[in-house]
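note to self: dont lose this again. the chain is below, predicted strucutre after it. 421 aa total, dont forget to put it in the shared folder this time
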Amino acid sequence: MNVYDGQRIAGMLTSRGMKQTDKVSEADIIILNTCAVRAKATDKVFSALGRIRNEKKPDALFGIVGCVARESGADAFRRIPELNFVLGPQSYHKLPEILENPDIKLLNIDLGGLEKFDELPQLEKSPAVAYIPIQEGCNHCCTYCIVPYTRGRELSRPFNDIIKDTIHAANTGAIEICFLGQNVNGYKYTDQEGKTYRLSDLIREAAKLNAIQRIRFTSSYPTEMTNDLIDMFRTETKLLPFLNLPIQSGSQNVLTRMNRPYSLDLYIDIVNKLKSARPDIQISSDFIVGFPGETDSDFEQTMEIAKRVKYINSYSFKYSPRPHTAAALMPDQIPESIKSARLAKLDAYLNDLQREFNTSCIGKIMPCLYEGVDKTGRHLVYRTPYMQQCITDTVGEAIPHLAQIEITDANKASLRGKIIK
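---
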């Protein structure tokens, strides 16, 4: 979501005659697009703001947009008095007000509707991977999660608006569509005629576009993994055989305290249905260790679910108390030393699973999407259907954007391969 927001902010400013620069000391306006999902992310924002304050030109405008802006509000001006603007994730289309009147300090952290999608200009040229938001906010209210506070309650965009954005992306260079939402598979929109659309309808419509070769979506919630969506993995070949399905914990007790009202049996049943619909599908997940009250037994159950599902790629974190969340006030907060030890053990096993899957790909030929040149300038970087990074040798000036690549080597982090065609 932040990649999409950043692209649109940049597009909005370039449409007003501005140019991007990577050097803070050259910039006339400096924007930090921020995430507040973990405390460490918020800390990094204010550390970066302090550095920017010292490096920027005296008359340069700077500020923050996104979830940290919503979380911090007016307190951001107290911590960094030189800030010019603090705009929440549904307010960054207000940036032109600062450009028109640079003497004001603009604070707008209200949770609006979907107005920003109507006001932001379309990108003149789409990246190969086009991120298309289909909804904002979340209604699940997990006790550890700040998203309902920073992004608001769940709102689904009109079906036709999403398809219009998808067609524009396809016509301007996109090869892959990634549908986005804090609760993306909860998308539900009813038009004026009373017809209701779900994520499966968006996938079906996007797949009709000849330019679009790959479709995926993130981030999913287990109970929203409806049968019509599972069936899309059986019938639509453009839908990648890969899904991030966060479980967060393998303990039913912890899931209950997290306010994630699904059983482990339901979760496993969904995984089995997905594998039945698409035998080559692979699953990744998200984990939180050290949630308040998590016992050694609870943690071992998380290890067991990882072993049972065999995730090929996962994101795991120590529990991080966030303001405006119920879990931050819970008793039995886990000491950092225990959280760190549990995370190290889980990560070690998840890394083994990732390495095992990557190694199993050696000898296979996969359709991969070009991402760019690596830092050395000597290799090309592609992305497999399972979101693995695949490195190949350069092939001169003719770089295929969608290539058949034979996998020749693998480690935990990436694959190596050679372009067949």
